[in-house]
Design a protein that fits this description.
19 strands; Rossmann fold; L-fucose Isomerase, Chain A, domain 2; five-stranded parallel beta sheet; six-stranded antiparallel β-barrel; 14 helices; elongated
Length: 411
């Protein structure tokens, strides 16, 4: 982990004494990071993959900083230990930057707290850079009922650096037709043998579902796709198979995959994975109970690695093909959704997964969540239908990430 400290010091300050004047903060940083001191005049030699902090070493540098406004990193993190009137200068600079719409923060205070904060900022930076250039495949088109889940491709690219790539369903169908039953036989046997039970779905259904998985994977390889969302119901009409098993296996392999052509949810899955390295369960909020502050989330697919055990079922809505009933571990969970056509809004809360339910009139994988914030959000101010569940409490990390990208929190 390398930090580039872009140093601003008054011309009256002797460069030879820079280290001795700030020995405490520099020595502490060097315990955890590789620290490179960069003179502000060389700032333009750094690239976008370099993590930069503006080191205000002395007072009297306010004009120097604003003269280099265009080169400053966004957001602008100012480090000031208070020596040589540095904090006074940082306060003035931060105010000037924020007055021009730039996000700015001053790192100052006790050294352990500064180190913890830098670690958070560094992780955010790495997540942002990791997202940049990612390609999200859209196989087919979003489902017709997702009337509030659209994304403006151009604005999403400007904000996040991601690219949505439209892929015709015919491309998928072509690969599907060329995959033989023999090619997927062993994979089908492995999935079936590890299941707790196989309640519905014939061997032929399982073979078709596995062939679809292979076909989607070939499309990802050809198009160099990092994440994708699929028009599940159109595929069901054409191929008489669902994407539930395919999406489950792809997510297990680290190819972030979402259902129903939902553009916002697949981005949420990708962003969450980038920050937490966790796979997510994309689901419908199916029951909201205000009295107990609980929700039930349900869908017909979930990554097998996210489950403790799983049961092979049919797809709920159609009662055809293969669906996955995953039994998820109880404990702390995080519920998250990034929404808006520009992907500039988000919902975030934590809760406790208390039970795997088994209602006959909803999708196969079902979990009851006791929420830590009021469930009225889902009834009064929701960001669409689908929401993402991840195991563990990642509220602070995700909140920092979305806030750093100037997203508005919806509650």
């Amino acid at each position: 982990m390398t930090i580039h400290l872009v140093t601003f010091a008054s011309l009256l300050h002797k460069q030879t004494s820079l280290r001795s004047s700030h020995e405490a903060i520099l020595s502490e940083l060097e315990k955890y990071y590789t620290v490179k001191l960069v003179d502000y005049q060389d700032m333009d030699k750094l690239n976008s993959d370099d993590f930069k902090i503006i080191f205000i070493a002395t007072g009297g540098v306010e004009r120097l900083v604003i003269q280099h406004f265009e080169c400053l990193p966004r957001p602008t993190i100012l480090l000031a230990d208070g020596m040589q009137n540095s904090l006074a200068a940082a306060l003035e600079i931060s105010t000037w930057l924020r007055g021009r719409g730039m996000k700015s923060e001053i790192l100052h205070g006790e050294l352990p707290a500064i180190i913890l904060r830098i670690h958070t900022l560094f992780n955010n930076f790495c997540a942002q850079r990791s997202l940049f250039g990612k390609r999200i495949g859209v196989i087919g088109t979003p489902s017709s009922w997702l009337i509030a889940s659209n994304v403006d491709y151009l604005l999403a690219k400007r904000r996040w650096g991601i690219e949505y790539v439209d892929i015709p369903l015919e491309t998928l169908y072509k690969h599907f037709k060329h995959i033989t039953d023999d090619e997927v036989g062993a994979s089908c046997a492995a999935v079936a043998s590890q299941a707790l039970a196989c309640r519905e779905g014939s061997p032929e259904d399982l073979i078709k579902a596995m062939k679809l998985y292979r076909a989607i994977k070939k499309v990802c390889e050809e198009e160099k796709i990092d994440a994708l969302t699929v028009s599940c119901f159109k595929i069901l009409e054409q191929l008489d198979t669902t994407g539930c098993l395919a999406l489950s296996l792809l997510n297990d392999e680290g190819i972030i995959t979402g259902c129903e052509g939902d553009l916002q949810s697949v981005f949420t899955l990708l962003a969450v994975n980038t920050v937490t390295q966790k796979g997510g369960f994309m689901a419908n909020p199916s029951i909201v109970t205000a009295r107990t502050n609980e929700i039930i989330l349900a869908h017909c697919t979930v990554g097998l690695k996210q489950t403790e055990r799983y049961i092979i079922r049919s797809h709920f809505e159609s009662d055809k093909s293969i669906g996955i009933q995953g039994l998820l571990p109880t404990g702390d969970v995080t519920i998250v959704k990034c929404g808006g056509e520009c992907l500039d809004e988000y919902y975030l809360s934590t809760g406790t997964l208390t039970e795997n339910t088994n209602y006959i009139n909803m999708c196969r994988t079902q979990v009851r969540i006791r929420m830590n914030t009021p469930v009225e959000y889902f009834l009064k101010n929701p960001l669409g239908n689908h929401h993402i569940l991840i195991h563990g409490n990642y509220e602070d990390a995700l909140n920092e990430f979305f806030q750093a990208n100037a997203c508005k929190k919806i509650e």
